[in-house]
Amino acid sequence: MNARVICWYDLPMLRIGNIQLAHPFVQAALSGYSDLPMRRVARMHGACYTINEVVLERSVLHDGAWQRQLLTVPPDDHPVAAQLMGANPDDFGPAARRLANAGYDVIDINFGCPVNKVLKRCRGGYLLGEPDTALEIVRNVVDAVAADRPVTLKMRRGVDASADSERNFFAILGGAFDMGVSAVTVHGRSVAQRYTGPSDWQFLKRVKDFAGDRVILGSGDLMSAGDCLAMMRETGVNGVTIARGALGNPWIFRECLALAKGKPQPAPPTVAEQGETLAIHFAEAEQYYGRDRAGKVMTRVAIKYARHHPVAKRVREAFIAAPTADGFEGVLAEWYEGTQPAAPLGVAVALGV
Fold first, then answer.
1. Out of 48, 113, 228, 256, which one is annotated catalytic?
2. Are 72 and 38 in contact (CB under 8 A)?
């Protein structure tokens, strides 16, 4: 497989502040997944803009091994956004500034996470019910970094389906744009829905109508390239952020690009292609985390990839039963046509812009 992607396509380009992107298909922030290894593999398959997994604002302000890793942005990982989540407005500005100084190109604020432990700590989607606090956070981040970095938001359509929730949503959306936010990603589910029920694409259309020329990205139920193109067509959003649809499926980016060009969707990856991509992903994880931890990290990643294998259940079970680096390589060799370990991509990955 050729690891270098040349941007030959002719698509409506997406602009986020001062950053011109080659196409509107974004690798979303995915907690526990969208680390540097995943972002590099996504770029290898056509992603031109990626978002790091969410981090707590107060955690960024400490010093330690994890922070040193977070605050190291390699030359091939651009453009990339850092996503912040938290409850204390006063911590957001300093955390955003530290991430910007580290080299992140965009600072994204998470007002969308629906996980119970997050909501109980007054973070993420909880803040959609607290517009004054949410806008104070936005103001602090804008004041801290907007002179040299675009600021963006991630929102759900509200805490729930009530009229009060909708009013709060639009108060935050309009207020954030007035403060200078460059783009907002809107997930068509409410916080109360979590990950069940359909994403309300008609709500996304209303949001885009409200926003006018300002940039709205859509999210929710984007499990295939066809879904991504359909959302843009039906709602008018400027682009899409692909989350669960990209887990173990970096090929979704090349598929989106082909469909957007009016070309046939590429054939699904062969077992050999799947194995090669998995081997590269593991090599990146080993370089990033060290061999022992990479085996554990890649177990949860690999079971997502396994969905594409002709005998998905058996391969998934094999990865779960072998949560070590040696075990991972053994599963590759057994189930992916003798795939051998690969070298990490490193700076050889094309930036995609």
1. 113
2. no
